[in-house]
Design a protein that fits this description.
Layout lengths: L13 E8 L4 H8 L16 H16 L8 E4 L3 H11 L12 E3 L11 E2 L6 E3 L18 H7 L24 H15 L6 E6 L1 H8 L8 H8 L7 E7 L42
Parallel strand pairs: 1-6, 2-5, 2-6
Antiparallel strand pairs: 1-7, 3-4
Length: about 280
Amino acid sequence: MDCPGPRLFPLHRCKTLHLVRHAQGMHNVEGDKNYKAYLSPQYFDAQLTQLGWQQVGNLHKHVRTCGLSKRIELVIASPLLRTLQTAVGVFGGGGYTDRTDALPLMVANAGNSGQAAISSLNSPPFIAVELCREHFGVHPCDKRQNISDYQFLFPAIDFSLIETDEDEMWKANVRETTEELTARGLKFMNWLWTRKEKEIAIVTHSGFLFHTLNAFGNDCHPLVKKEICNRFANCELRSMVIVDRSMTESDPATTNYPGKIPRGLDLPSDAPEEDGGGPKTNSVI
C-alpha cells in the first residue's frame, strides 16, 4: 500500500543528482528582449556573457564552501559551449599551470571568453553526453560545434560517448517536439542507472530540465511537485535524489554492515516464540 508522508529506501538503490542550468548565455540576453533573436545565426552555439562568468564564479565558491565539490564523483555536461564553460568553471580546479601529468579542463580564452585556463587537478572526471542537450533544431544557439573543435578547447573532458563529429541531431527546419524531448530526458535518466557513480553533477539546459522533471513528482504533494518542476534560473543548482522502486538489482551497498561479528546470543526482545516452545537462540561459535 502506498502511504502518504516520509518514504524509506535503501541508500544503495538511490542516486544523488546535482542539477545545474548553464549560466547566462549571449542568446539569453537578446532572447529576453525579443524571442525571435533565438533564430539568429549570430548566436550559433552561444557562449557565456561576462555576467554569466560571474554567476559561474559564485556557484564555484558555493560548491566548495558547502563541501559539495568533494562529494561529486562525476560531472556530466551537455556538449554545447555554454554548458561546457559552466561545467568546468563551477566544478573544475583552480588556475592551470603547464605540466605534463594533467591536461587543462579548458584552455585560455576558450570561446573568446577572456577567461584563464582551468585545471583538472583535484576535480572529478568530466564527460559530455548528447542526451542532455537542449531542444534540437531550428534555433542556431542550440546547435553544437564539431566535437574535434571542443576537444581542443576542453582537453580533459571525455567526448568518447558522442558518436559523430558533426552535429547530426540538429535540423534547420525541424524543431524537436516537447514529447520527444521528454522521452529523451527519461532515456537519459535511465542511462544514469548504468553508471556506478552515486553522486553526479549534471550541467544542462532550461528546456531539458523543465520537460524532463515534469515527468516526475506526480505521486508527491503538489508543493513538492512544484519544487521539482519549477524552471531553473541561470546557473541555479538543485540537488535531488532519485530511486527506481522497480529495480531488482543494484550495486552492492558500501556502507551496510551485516552485524553479528562476532556472532552471539542476539534474539531481539520482540521476536515471536516458536510453537510455544520458548525463544530459539543462536549457538555461540
